[in-house]
Amino acid sequence: MIQDKVNKFDPWQMQELVGGLLQALGYNAQVSPKGPDGGVDVLAFKDAFGFEKPIIKVQVKHRKSSSSAPAPDIQQLLGANPMDANSLFVSTGGFTSQAEEVARRNSVRLVDLDELVDLAVKWYEYMPDDVRALLPLQKMYVSER
């Protein structure tokens, strides 16, 4: 059910979700405004000024499962500034085998829809309120009887 909700997000909501997840993980995340972004949708830093490593540049592709991210998308992220940042590529449609190979050779971390949802659930309570409002979840306790 959570995957269905996330699949209904528009591309900007998806970027906000990824930015909120990075904030939950202790980063200062800057989501690019709508419009041309130079290949980087989210930029995340450990400190408020962006000096402390690691710096993470993120590309988010919100696609249906039949439209996997190809290798050129991964290469575009690698060429985007800052060049010395770690690279994270999120694709709800998964990745082609060529994209996975390019990512492996260049230490790009790939996250598909399943992993994104798992991470969002795990770190949900630490996400900013506005991001949690995009994906309203409630804890349920089930008796083992």
Task: Write a compact overview of the structure shown.
This protein has helices at residues 2-7, 11-24, 71-79, 97-105, 113-123, 129-134; strands spanning 28-31, 42-45, 56-61, 86-91, 108-112. By secondary structure, it is of the alpha/beta class.
Give the SSE layout.
Elements: H1 2-7, H2 11-24, E1 28-31, E2 42-45, E3 56-61, H3 71-79, E4 86-91, H4 97-105, E5 108-112, H5 113-123, H6 129-134
Parallel strand pairs: 3-4, 4-5
Antiparallel strand pairs: 1-2, 2-3
Helix pairs in contact: 2-5, 3-4
Q: Percent range for helical residues?
A: 25-40%
CATH architecture: 3-Layer(aba) Sandwich
Radius of gyration, taken over Cα atoms and rounded to an integer in Å? 15 Å
Beta-strand portion reads: 15-25%
CATH fold node name: Trna Endonuclease, Chain: A, domain 1
Order of helices and strands: HHEEEHEHEHH
Mean pLDDT: 91
List the domain count as a whole number.
1
Can you describe this structure?
By secondary structure, the chain is an alpha/beta fold. The chain contains six helices and five strands. The protein has one domain: Trna Endonuclease, Chain: A, domain 1, CATH 3.40.1350.10. Strands 1-2-3-4-5 form a five-stranded mixed beta sheet, with helices on both faces. Helix 2 packs across helix 5 and helix 3 runs parallel beside helix 4. The mean pLDDT is 91.
